[in-house]
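On clarity, I found the account of how folds are encoded harder to follow than it need be. Since the whole study asks how a given chain folds, the encoding of that fold should be made plain. For illustration, here is how one protein appears when written out as sequence plus C-alpha coordinates:

:::
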Amino acid sequence: MSMPVDPVVTTAGKELATDASATGKRILVIKLSALGDVILAMGPFAAIRAAHPDAHITVLTTRPFVDLMKASGFFDAIAIDRRPKLTNLREVFALRRFLRNGNFDRVYDLQTSDRSGFYYKLFWPSPKPEWSGIARGCSHPHANPERDSMHALDRIFDQLEYAGISKVPVPVLAGPDIDLDRFGIRSPFVLICPGGAPHRPAKRWPAERFGLLAKKLADYRLTPVLIGTDKESDVLGKIDAMCPKARNLMGRTGFLDIASLGARSVLAIGNDTGPMHIAAAAGAPSIVLFSRESDPKLSAPRGISDNAVSTVRESDLRELTVNRVMEEVRRRLDLDE
Protein backbone atom coordinates (compact mmCIF):
# COMPACT_ATOMS: atom_id res chain seq x y z
CA MET A 1 0.00 0.00 0.00
CA SER A 2 1.51 3.30 -1.07
CA MET A 3 0.74 6.20 1.24
CA PRO A 4 0.18 9.73 -0.08
CA VAL A 5 3.15 11.98 0.57
CA ASP A 6 2.14 15.44 -0.62
CA PRO A 7 -1.64 15.74 -0.84
CA VAL A 8 -3.27 18.32 -3.07
CA VAL A 9 -4.96 21.08 -1.01
CA THR A 10 -7.83 23.02 -2.51
CA THR A 11 -11.02 24.81 -1.53
CA ALA A 12 -14.21 22.83 -1.98
CA GLY A 13 -15.76 24.23 -5.14
CA LYS A 14 -12.59 24.02 -7.21
CA GLU A 15 -11.63 21.06 -9.37
CA LEU A 16 -9.27 18.59 -7.77
CA ALA A 17 -6.20 17.97 -9.93
CA THR A 18 -5.93 14.20 -10.25
CA ASP A 19 -4.32 11.70 -12.58
CA ALA A 20 -6.77 11.15 -15.43
CA SER A 21 -5.30 7.67 -16.01
CA ALA A 22 -6.01 6.53 -12.46
CA THR A 23 -8.31 3.51 -12.34
CA GLY A 24 -8.75 3.09 -8.58
CA LYS A 25 -11.87 4.05 -6.72
CA ARG A 26 -12.44 7.60 -5.58
CA ILE A 27 -13.31 7.99 -1.91
CA LEU A 28 -14.42 11.06 0.03
CA VAL A 29 -14.10 11.29 3.82
CA ILE A 30 -15.96 14.10 5.59
CA LYS A 31 -14.63 15.35 8.94
CA LEU A 32 -15.12 19.06 9.54
CA SER A 33 -14.58 19.59 13.27
CA ALA A 34 -13.97 19.84 16.21
CA LEU A 35 -10.36 19.29 17.26
CA GLY A 36 -11.03 16.44 19.68
CA ASP A 37 -13.29 14.68 17.19
CA VAL A 38 -10.73 15.09 14.41
CA ILE A 39 -8.08 13.46 16.60
CA LEU A 40 -10.40 10.60 17.54
CA ALA A 41 -10.98 10.02 13.81
CA MET A 42 -7.28 9.33 13.12
CA GLY A 43 -7.74 5.60 13.74
CA PRO A 44 -10.81 5.44 11.47
CA PHE A 45 -8.88 7.39 8.80
CA ALA A 46 -6.20 4.70 8.92
CA ALA A 47 -8.84 1.97 8.64
CA ILE A 48 -10.43 3.60 5.59
CA ARG A 49 -7.04 3.87 3.89
CA ALA A 50 -6.30 0.22 4.70
CA ALA A 51 -9.69 -0.83 3.31
CA HIS A 52 -9.05 1.11 0.08
CA PRO A 53 -5.26 0.84 -0.45
CA ASP A 54 -5.35 1.76 -4.15
CA ALA A 55 -8.09 4.38 -4.02
CA HIS A 56 -7.72 8.13 -4.45
CA ILE A 57 -8.95 9.42 -1.09
CA THR A 58 -9.99 13.03 -0.50
CA VAL A 59 -10.82 14.43 2.92
CA LEU A 60 -13.26 17.32 3.23
CA THR A 61 -12.37 19.32 6.33
CA THR A 62 -12.01 22.88 7.59
CA ARG A 63 -8.93 25.08 7.41
CA PRO A 64 -7.67 24.65 11.02
CA PHE A 65 -7.13 20.94 10.45
CA VAL A 66 -5.29 20.94 7.11
CA ASP A 67 -1.87 20.38 8.66
CA LEU A 68 -3.16 17.47 10.73
CA MET A 69 -4.65 15.87 7.63
CA LYS A 70 -1.38 16.36 5.73
CA ALA A 71 0.68 14.87 8.53
CA SER A 72 -1.58 11.82 8.82
CA GLY A 73 -0.43 10.53 5.44
CA PHE A 74 -3.81 8.96 4.70
CA PHE A 75 -5.10 11.31 2.00
CA ASP A 76 -4.29 12.08 -1.61
CA ALA A 77 -6.18 15.37 -1.53
CA ILE A 78 -7.54 17.77 1.07
CA ALA A 79 -10.55 19.93 0.30
CA ILE A 80 -11.35 22.87 2.57
CA ASP A 81 -15.00 23.35 3.40
CA ARG A 82 -15.83 26.99 4.14
CA ARG A 83 -19.09 25.79 5.71
CA PRO A 84 -21.24 28.31 3.88
CA LYS A 85 -24.56 29.43 5.23
CA LEU A 86 -27.28 27.69 3.28
CA THR A 87 -28.56 31.11 2.23
CA ASN A 88 -25.24 31.78 0.48
CA LEU A 89 -26.27 30.16 -2.77
CA ARG A 90 -23.01 30.95 -4.57
CA GLU A 91 -20.95 29.05 -2.01
CA VAL A 92 -23.47 26.22 -1.73
CA PHE A 93 -23.46 25.71 -5.49
CA ALA A 94 -19.65 25.76 -5.49
CA LEU A 95 -19.68 23.00 -2.88
CA ARG A 96 -22.25 21.12 -4.96
CA ARG A 97 -19.96 21.29 -8.00
CA PHE A 98 -17.11 19.89 -5.92
CA LEU A 99 -19.21 16.97 -4.74
CA ARG A 100 -20.74 16.15 -8.11
CA ASN A 101 -17.57 16.61 -10.17
CA GLY A 102 -15.48 14.55 -7.75
CA ASN A 103 -16.87 11.33 -9.23
CA PHE A 104 -16.73 9.74 -5.80
CA ASP A 105 -17.59 6.06 -5.61
CA ARG A 106 -18.09 6.12 -1.85
CA VAL A 107 -18.38 8.76 0.88
CA TYR A 108 -17.61 8.16 4.55
CA ASP A 109 -19.43 10.89 6.46
CA LEU A 110 -17.65 10.82 9.82
CA GLN A 111 -19.16 14.17 10.79
CA THR A 112 -22.73 12.78 10.73
CA SER A 113 -24.26 16.19 11.36
CA ASP A 114 -27.26 17.92 9.85
CA ARG A 115 -24.84 19.86 7.64
CA SER A 116 -22.98 16.84 6.29
CA GLY A 117 -26.29 15.03 5.84
CA PHE A 118 -27.41 17.95 3.69
CA TYR A 119 -24.34 17.44 1.50
CA TYR A 120 -25.79 14.06 0.49
CA LYS A 121 -28.77 15.87 -0.99
CA LEU A 122 -26.52 18.09 -3.10
CA PHE A 123 -25.80 15.21 -5.49
CA TRP A 124 -29.39 15.39 -6.78
CA PRO A 125 -30.36 14.85 -9.59
CA SER A 126 -27.11 13.02 -10.38
CA PRO A 127 -26.67 9.46 -9.12
CA LYS A 128 -25.58 9.42 -5.50
CA PRO A 129 -22.40 7.62 -4.44
CA GLU A 130 -22.34 4.91 -1.83
CA TRP A 131 -22.65 6.78 1.45
CA SER A 132 -21.80 5.73 5.00
CA GLY A 133 -23.51 7.97 7.54
CA ILE A 134 -26.94 8.95 8.75
CA ALA A 135 -28.26 10.81 5.70
CA ARG A 136 -31.76 9.67 4.92
CA GLY A 137 -31.81 7.19 2.03
CA CYS A 138 -28.05 6.58 1.99
CA SER A 139 -26.68 3.18 0.95
CA HIS A 140 -24.86 2.34 4.20
CA PRO A 141 -26.80 3.96 7.03
CA HIS A 142 -25.51 3.76 10.58
CA ALA A 143 -28.82 2.50 11.86
CA ASN A 144 -27.82 1.60 15.42
CA PRO A 145 -30.51 3.14 17.66
CA GLU A 146 -27.93 3.43 20.46
CA ARG A 147 -25.51 5.58 18.44
CA ASP A 148 -26.23 8.77 20.38
CA SER A 149 -25.36 7.10 23.69
CA MET A 150 -22.01 5.75 22.46
CA HIS A 151 -18.59 7.27 22.94
CA ALA A 152 -17.68 9.33 19.88
CA LEU A 153 -14.97 6.87 18.82
CA ASP A 154 -17.05 3.76 19.46
CA ARG A 155 -19.77 5.34 17.34
CA ILE A 156 -17.39 5.69 14.38
CA PHE A 157 -16.11 2.14 14.92
CA ASP A 158 -19.70 0.93 14.76
CA GLN A 159 -20.51 3.07 11.73
CA LEU A 160 -17.55 1.67 9.80
CA GLU A 161 -18.52 -1.88 10.73
CA TYR A 162 -21.95 -1.22 9.20
CA ALA A 163 -20.02 -0.13 6.08
CA GLY A 164 -17.92 -3.29 6.00
CA ILE A 165 -14.76 -2.11 7.82
CA SER A 166 -14.23 -4.07 11.02
CA LYS A 167 -10.56 -3.53 11.84
CA VAL A 168 -10.16 0.00 13.18
CA PRO A 169 -7.10 1.00 15.25
CA VAL A 170 -7.10 3.49 18.10
CA PRO A 171 -6.12 7.05 17.15
CA VAL A 172 -2.39 7.69 17.00
CA LEU A 173 -0.80 11.04 16.22
CA ALA A 174 2.93 11.46 15.74
CA GLY A 175 4.49 14.90 15.66
CA PRO A 176 7.92 15.76 14.28
CA ASP A 177 11.10 15.36 16.31
CA ILE A 178 11.29 18.29 18.66
CA ASP A 179 14.18 20.07 20.38
CA LEU A 180 13.19 20.70 23.98
CA ASP A 181 15.94 23.30 24.27
CA ARG A 182 14.05 25.36 21.71
CA PHE A 183 11.33 25.77 24.32
CA GLY A 184 13.66 25.91 27.32
CA ILE A 185 12.14 22.73 28.76
CA ARG A 186 13.94 20.53 31.27
CA SER A 187 12.91 16.89 31.55
CA PRO A 188 11.03 15.29 33.12
CA PHE A 189 8.08 17.53 32.41
CA VAL A 190 4.29 17.52 32.71
CA LEU A 191 2.18 19.04 29.96
CA ILE A 192 -0.63 21.23 31.32
CA CYS A 193 -3.63 22.28 29.20
CA PRO A 194 -5.62 24.76 31.33
CA GLY A 195 -7.70 26.34 28.57
CA GLY A 196 -10.89 25.42 26.79
CA ALA A 197 -13.74 26.77 24.76
CA PRO A 198 -14.37 30.36 25.89
CA HIS A 199 -18.13 29.94 25.54
CA ARG A 200 -18.10 27.01 28.01
CA PRO A 201 -16.35 28.33 31.14
CA ALA A 202 -17.88 25.58 33.30
CA LYS A 203 -15.54 23.12 31.59
CA ARG A 204 -12.50 24.95 32.99
CA TRP A 205 -10.82 24.22 36.30
CA PRO A 206 -9.92 27.59 37.90
CA ALA A 207 -6.52 28.98 36.91
CA GLU A 208 -5.53 29.37 40.56
CA ARG A 209 -5.96 25.63 41.10
CA PHE A 210 -3.76 24.89 38.11
CA GLY A 211 -1.21 27.29 39.60
CA LEU A 212 -1.17 25.44 42.91
CA LEU A 213 -0.94 22.13 41.05
CA ALA A 214 2.02 23.41 39.05
CA LYS A 215 3.83 24.36 42.27
CA LYS A 216 3.28 20.88 43.69
CA LEU A 217 4.59 19.30 40.49
CA ALA A 218 7.67 21.53 40.67
CA ASP A 219 8.27 20.33 44.23
CA TYR A 220 8.70 16.87 42.73
CA ARG A 221 11.22 18.33 40.26
CA LEU A 222 8.77 17.97 37.42
CA THR A 223 8.73 20.92 35.03
CA PRO A 224 5.17 22.21 34.43
CA VAL A 225 4.85 23.08 30.73
CA LEU A 226 1.87 25.32 29.95
CA ILE A 227 0.28 25.32 26.50
CA GLY A 228 -2.51 27.44 25.10
CA THR A 229 -3.36 30.19 22.68
CA ASP A 230 -3.05 33.94 23.04
CA LYS A 231 -6.76 34.00 23.87
CA GLU A 232 -5.93 32.12 27.07
CA SER A 233 -3.28 34.60 28.19
CA ASP A 234 -5.10 35.47 31.41
CA VAL A 235 -5.25 31.84 32.53
CA LEU A 236 -1.68 31.05 31.50
CA GLY A 237 -0.40 34.28 33.02
CA LYS A 238 -1.92 33.51 36.41
CA ILE A 239 -0.37 30.03 36.49
CA ASP A 240 2.97 31.37 35.33
CA ALA A 241 2.98 34.03 38.06
CA MET A 242 2.14 31.45 40.73
CA CYS A 243 4.83 28.99 39.62
CA PRO A 244 8.05 30.61 38.37
CA LYS A 245 9.45 27.16 37.50
CA ALA A 246 6.72 26.62 34.90
CA ARG A 247 7.46 27.07 31.20
CA ASN A 248 4.76 29.13 29.52
CA LEU A 249 4.53 28.26 25.79
CA MET A 250 1.52 30.45 25.08
CA GLY A 251 1.00 30.82 21.33
CA ARG A 252 4.13 28.84 20.47
CA THR A 253 2.69 25.38 19.88
CA GLY A 254 0.72 24.20 16.88
CA PHE A 255 -1.21 20.93 16.94
CA LEU A 256 1.79 18.89 15.80
CA ASP A 257 4.06 20.58 18.35
CA ILE A 258 1.62 19.52 21.07
CA ALA A 259 1.81 15.95 19.79
CA SER A 260 5.61 16.06 19.92
CA LEU A 261 5.59 17.47 23.45
CA GLY A 262 2.97 14.95 24.55
CA ALA A 263 5.12 12.08 23.32
CA ARG A 264 8.07 13.33 25.41
CA SER A 265 6.10 14.19 28.56
CA VAL A 266 5.72 11.95 31.60
CA LEU A 267 2.11 13.10 32.02
CA ALA A 268 -0.48 15.45 30.55
CA ILE A 269 -3.14 17.15 32.68
CA GLY A 270 -5.93 19.39 31.49
CA ASN A 271 -9.54 20.22 31.00
CA ASP A 272 -11.83 18.41 28.58
CA THR A 273 -10.41 20.18 25.54
CA GLY A 274 -8.91 19.36 22.14
CA PRO A 275 -5.21 19.52 23.08
CA MET A 276 -5.75 16.74 25.62
CA HIS A 277 -6.95 14.51 22.78
CA ILE A 278 -3.72 15.33 20.94
CA ALA A 279 -1.57 14.50 23.98
CA ALA A 280 -3.35 11.19 24.54
CA ALA A 281 -3.10 10.18 20.87
CA ALA A 282 0.62 11.02 20.98
CA GLY A 283 1.11 8.55 23.83
CA ALA A 284 1.10 10.79 26.90
CA PRO A 285 -0.33 9.26 30.07
CA SER A 286 -3.20 11.67 30.66
CA ILE A 287 -5.49 12.99 33.38
CA VAL A 288 -8.55 14.85 32.09
CA LEU A 289 -10.78 16.99 34.31
CA PHE A 290 -14.51 16.84 33.64
CA SER A 291 -17.49 18.78 34.96
CA ARG A 292 -21.19 18.18 34.49
CA GLU A 293 -20.90 20.05 31.19
CA SER A 294 -19.54 16.96 29.43
CA ASP A 295 -19.58 13.22 29.95
CA PRO A 296 -16.32 11.24 29.77
CA LYS A 297 -18.32 8.18 28.74
CA LEU A 298 -19.17 10.02 25.52
CA SER A 299 -16.17 12.21 24.82
CA ALA A 300 -13.06 11.39 26.86
CA PRO A 301 -9.76 11.20 24.97
CA ARG A 302 -8.57 7.72 24.05
CA GLY A 303 -4.97 6.74 24.63
CA ILE A 304 -2.75 4.36 22.73
CA SER A 305 -2.83 1.75 25.50
CA ASP A 306 -5.40 0.57 28.01
CA ASN A 307 -5.75 2.83 31.04
CA ALA A 308 -3.59 5.50 29.40
CA VAL A 309 -6.26 8.10 30.14
CA SER A 310 -7.85 8.62 33.53
CA THR A 311 -10.58 11.11 34.34
CA VAL A 312 -11.39 13.14 37.42
CA ARG A 313 -14.96 14.42 37.47
CA GLU A 314 -16.64 16.98 39.69
CA SER A 315 -20.06 18.40 38.91
CA ASP A 316 -18.75 21.93 39.48
CA LEU A 317 -15.03 22.20 38.76
CA ARG A 318 -14.79 25.05 41.24
CA GLU A 319 -15.32 22.36 43.90
CA LEU A 320 -12.50 20.13 42.63
CA THR A 321 -9.56 20.33 45.03
CA VAL A 322 -5.90 20.38 44.13
CA ASN A 323 -5.29 17.53 46.58
CA ARG A 324 -7.72 15.29 44.73
CA VAL A 325 -5.98 15.90 41.42
CA MET A 326 -2.56 15.41 43.03
CA GLU A 327 -3.71 12.06 44.41
CA GLU A 328 -4.31 10.95 40.83
CA VAL A 329 -0.96 12.40 39.73
CA ARG A 330 0.87 10.49 42.45
CA ARG A 331 -0.97 7.31 41.53
CA ARG A 332 -0.16 7.66 37.83
CA LEU A 333 3.52 8.53 38.39
CA ASP A 334 4.02 6.34 41.47
CA LEU A 335 5.15 9.30 43.59
CA ASP A 336 5.47 9.35 47.37
CA GLU A 337 3.47 11.90 49.34
In short: The chain has a mean pLDDT of 94. Residues 89-101 form the longest helix (13 residues). The first strand starts at residue 8 and ends at 11.
